[in-house]
């Protein structure tokens, strides 16, 4: 009995920590934690207790808990994920620094690694990997059904090492194979900006990271000095990123206190509106604006293009966007793991 009690307490506090709310709310005070939920959690503790006692081998509790969390999140939607502490740190690299790998943005959808965007001049682009490709083999092994947190372990590696991938591509009956030599991938959110003629500016933004608004401002200032009178903002292949940077971008073209986007959730505190002046005053431009999008423009890209379209501030051109109508929050757990 004592063993079952200890197992129950361990499971109790593991779930408590996973909510990331233990510092504020006792678990039993959470609005969603009712008697039926309590019975289901008790069932989990029973399964852990029975398995720990009677399974032929000892349990790797870390592995068991990780897979249990993953299974729960996979039952919600294709975008909710659990990241181990190592994976959480690696994910931060994609928005804050640099890493050694192949240079793609991806999402695991229906068990396949969908290439959302290819970072310019990275190994993936150099060999011909394209947005929309679906990676189904890595180093000769079938990876259909791969867990999201496993992808970086397969694709990242020391600079100079190689990885071979097999991809599905629309219009091709057979898999396409590419051998990529890993390299150091600097994270730039603006691929390029230039003046194709005396009055038109062009900016290609590949993601929304912590520096995107500042990078865009720098690009606009430089092109204005060269006489820019109209702008093409290219968000094709942009898989999204930080919501705050999307709001800041919109504020560069829409003045005043205008709502950019709002969120609605099951809990009242998730019902929020974001306005153009939420992050301080911005240098607003009133020049003619065209925004380019395609099927790989997702999340924050759709917020920017949608807001500019709704306010009749820009002409949106290209293809239908990805259609990710979700704003996700990331929660850091006690051990550095993340829930998104």
From TrEMBL:
Keyword Coiled coil (UniProt): no
Domain of life: Bacteria
GO biological process: proteolysis; signal transduction
Presence of the UniProt keyword Hydrolase in the record: yes
Molecular-function GO terms, alphabetical: endopeptidase activity; serine-type peptidase activity
Keywords: Hydrolase, Protease, Serine protease
Residue ranges of domain PDZ in the record: 97-156
Leader peptide range in chain numbering: none
PANTHER family to which the protein is assigned, alphabetical: CARBOXY-TERMINAL PROCESSING PROTEASE CTPA, TAIL-SPECIFIC PROTEASE
NCBIfam families, per the entry: prc
Family as reported in the entry's similarity comment: Belongs to the peptidase S41A family.
Protein name: S41 family peptidase
Organism of provenance: Caldithrix abyssi
